[in-house]
Amino acid sequence: MRSFSTIVTVTGTFMTMAVVLNEVFGSLFA
């Protein structure tokens, strides 16, 4: 279960970073 929890945490972090980067690039190139 520990590995599953780690995967969920990493995935959540990656998704959050993707959203932040999307917002940043969106504001830069808008």
UniProtKB/TrEMBL annotation:
Protein name in the entry: Uncharacterized protein
Source species: Actinomadura macrotermitis
Domain of life: Bacteria
